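UPF0187-domain-containing protein
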Amino acid sequence: DLYPLICYLPRYATDASIKPDPEDSLPLWDNVTHSRAPVVPPFGVDSLKNESETPNGPQRRGTIFQPEQALPRVSTDVPLLPARIPPRTTFYDYLPIFLFFKPILTIFRGTRYTEDRRDGAGRKKAARPVESNVPLEISLFLSSYTAWLLKEDLVKPAIATALINTLTVLQDTVANLDRVRTTPIPFAYQAHLRTTMWIYLFLLPFQIYASFKYLTIPATAFASFLLMGFLEIGQEIENPFNYDLNDLDLDAFCLTIERELAEITAHSASDPSSFLFNSFNQPFAPTDRRNVEEILADSKHAYHLPDSGMMHVQRTLLGCWREIDEVTRHKAR
């Protein structure tokens, strides 16, 4: 969903009107198979034929949500994946207690679950290398644009300083989020905790058999469910940026920012005189409920006295404080 917003930048530009030539391919698209005909995504970046189709199968009617419709429509000679590719919903998502048998089924079926993010020992698999860090590259172009504004004297130095500081905070935030995503729980801690847990659960039936008798099996299963849940919780909080139910909904955050930016840019910065001096502004309410026009028109009021005008304004503000303090405090009957 980001491509239509950055497709005009030099690193990501792909001209669909020109016949693709491998000799002219940018480094980012070097290993990508170019289409002979331009691919025009229906809503920004989704190049799938059916609106309800995803790489993991079709979506059910009524569950389709495509915020890409609000993005510019661009054409590219490079086939693009959808903006959101959640993992396929499986049987284990509905009954996670059967995850214990998943490695055994894998051995008998002779297949590997490519969507698993951990190996058999519970260690986090290394992420696939990424050709480029898109957020940092966007911040590079933003810094270049800020430098150009300064060079052309289009912004004041103080405003440019605020822009540069904001870009620095943005880069630090991206680096911190990436550090959270790529920093695993130490394997020695995981291995020690798992080994201790399995040894305890293996010996638990022999410890409680004399007291529980035939209830030993369900009691052991219940204890295993509780204790193994703590291990799963530790793995869940290791990376909060996936599509699990407990992960952060970054898509919702980004869509909220998109809506707020659109709302901000839709309202121009008006002259303060156009909204300060009108009939709706009552600056001294609740003590003085006259609007600005009435206050300015009453030239004989104490506010307009050359020597004591500010004293009367301060007296009115103190009255506002007393009245607000009395009204907003809840008094027990």
